[in-house]
Amino acid sequence: MIVLITGKYFGFAKYSIILLNSRMFSLFLPFIRHYMEKRLFKDKVYTILANLVKAMANPHRLEIIDLLGQGERSVEEIAKETNMSVANASQHLQTLKQSNLVVVRKEGNFVHYRLASDNVYKSWHDLRAIGMESLAEVNKLVKDFRTERNSLEPVTMQQLLAKMHSRNIVLLDVRPGQEFSAGHIPNAINIPIDELATRIKELNKAKQYIAYCRGPFCVFADDAVQLLTKKGFKARRLEEGYPDWKLQFEPFTIS
Asked: Per-block average pLDDT, block size 10, for the chain (255 residues)?
């Protein structure tokens, strides 16, 4: 009897042909099965996980995950926020749903999506951190964008913790009211970026403002700092956003 053994399973450099009689083959068969089953198991597991990564490996889907980190959204809201058509947004959401990264809630004619768990946002958070640490291009894009707006060095989470008990510091959440209501950093006040120019008289120039929004790639806080500094206020942005606070410092505030 001739058995073809491959290096894929047994570490041989090339294919090897081994002549076995029936008895030898019966003794060798469990050994073959063991290594084939082990390889098949690994192939299946890594393929499933690779498909999960593939579901995220799209700029629009990453932005959707980042957006849903703020809270539940309808398809129409997601399409508007990401500058996509409703049809395109729906296709991307279906891909995420098929990989169990988002879940659906139906309300009348509307379909709402949210992240399947905080671990989905954490995976995006970790990927973003790797990109900012390892890819100079990402850091350059962020730095150049903020330099154009004359933004000061952003405040880190640890620096915020040290400042939060100061009476001179005001934490300004410039996200839409819906997102603020879903969850926010403790003691923050909410003035959505679209309302900041008309409500700026509510603020006190004797205070120092730390503006925050959805995260480091969200520009609401940059726009807020630019507006406030032009009006004579002392303002800086928080490096990260509310979902990042939520990951690091539970419990969090829900109104």
From this structure: 47 48 62 73 88 94 96 94 96 96 91 94 93 88 79 86 89 96 93 97 96 94 94 95 88 40
Instruction: In whole angstroms, give the CA distance from residue 154 to residue 225.
Output: 10
Over its C-alpha atoms, the chain yields an Rg (Å, rounded) of 26
pLDDT of residue 11: 47
Q: What are phi and psi of 231, to 5 degrees?
A: -90, 5
- Residue closest to 68 by CA, chosen among 176, 179, 146, 159: 179
As a CATH number, domain 59-119 is 1.10.10.10
- pTM of structure: 0.78
> Catalytic residue at 218?
no
The full set of domain ranges for the chain reads: 2-56, 59-119, 145-248
Residue 90 Cα distances to 57, 62, 191, angstroms: 16, 14, 30
- Provide the token pair at 151: 């933004």
Per-residue pLDDT of 77-113, as tens digits, reads: 999 999 999 999 999 999 999 999 999 999 888 899 9
Catalytic residue among 174, 210, 213, 238, which?
Answer: 213
What CATH class has 145-248?
alpha beta
Helices (H), 69-212: 75-82, 86-98, 118-134, 136-148, 157-163, 177-182, 193-199
Tokens describing residue 55: 């579901």
